[in-house]
Amino acid sequence: MKQYEFWFVVGSQYLYGPEVLEIVAARAAEMAEQLSEKLPYKLVYKVTAKTNQEIADVVKEANYDDACAGIVTWCHTFSPSKMWINGLANLQKPYCHLATQYNKEIPNEEIGMDFMNLNQAAHGDREHGFIAARLRMPRKVIAGYWQDEKVQTRLGDWMKAAVGVAVSKSLKVMRFGDNMREVAVTEGDKVEVQTKLGWQVNTWAVGDLVKEMNAVTEAEIDALMAVYTASYDVATDNIDAIRYQAREEIAIKKMMDAEGCKAFSNTFQDLYGMEQLPGLASQHLMAQGYGYGGEGDWKVAAMTAILKAMGEGGNGASAFMEDYTYHLVEGQEYSLGAHMLEVCPSVAAGKPRIETHHLGIGMNEKDPARLVFEGKAGKAIVVSLIDMGGRLRLIVQDIEAVKPIMPMPNLPVARVMWKAMPNLTTGVECWITAGGAHHTVLSYDVSAEQMRDWARMMDIEFVHITKDTTPEKLEEELFLKDLAWKLK
Known about the structure:
alpha/beta; six-stranded antiparallel barrel; about 500 residues
């Protein structure tokens, strides 16, 4: 992810004279350099823009530079907003307005008209903000002193969301087979998704995968087995099952890399020519940053890849997840999330174990190997992207993951237990009312605010279920949003 950078575009005008403009440029360069040391991505000072043409040119350059993941604007002095119209109207990259100023305090002894003429961010940023509002520009506004940790954290979080946009715009998803038969929520309009989010979602035959598997060498499997044994505890004598998963992983990775895909889906209903559903194979691919969706769910596969890219270090603690069953004891209401085999080990509380067990569903000829572990405790979110017919809706729910309250020794899968906000039953009612899917992406690294930013950049509907959400308020919100989005 480190190939991405953000451009710092500072607004001013010729009215102040060359000396002031030199000071503005020097300060802008200094701010960009110092902020780059604190932010997850480099902030590159590009220009102190003083004319319509300068702004239009830098926007045009940003639009066509693949390394530029977004622009950050600031008006050190007064920048007449009409000069921003042509540039902002053509901007195709995420946009953050940093409303700050060079100095933290008003200097009691130094302040005079010279100081006031140079330090006009207080109304320069308001003039700049007006034109973005007038143009209905989707943007993030962050106000505060640029050296404060809170401001830097918020700007860094926005950058990660913008990188999620860059990943989304170039994302390719490889589907092995179709989605699970008769399932509604895993369907979707792939043309609309490519138009809106950039995803290229296409199908490859399972037979192509089997052919690639047959070409995998024993030496390649040996090398991956060494990685498995170094990363995980081997808790099975069925080494052949683990080697078969390695064969599957190598083949899937080769096919995805050859096509430039960063996410894939499969289904247990279509394993023709394969002995096992990819379990350990899918889990270890997710650990490397690839997205995955079970039962042919290509939407959650893509979202897993995007949230992973938005997380810490460009591959954060995010995982394909599914609400499996509830614990409904009063005062101890929890949701148990898992899947048949495929949960990413990035969310594990300890070192995962490789185990083999019978899987009583699907077309498995032999017992699949998989990673078994408990998820870690901590604040997190679950995310679902659904197709509402004519628009996409992103649903985010705040949760608090806990150490599972029971060991469940006979459950041979990775599992995470959590408290849903505002509580389990109300949260379930709200989730169902909003149409949330049974498949989600669970993330400890990505926040609801970042997902709101991502949805704003992508121009899709956003629904947030929090500790303060009630079914009544949500129903009203959804009704109003339905009207608003129909008018767009």
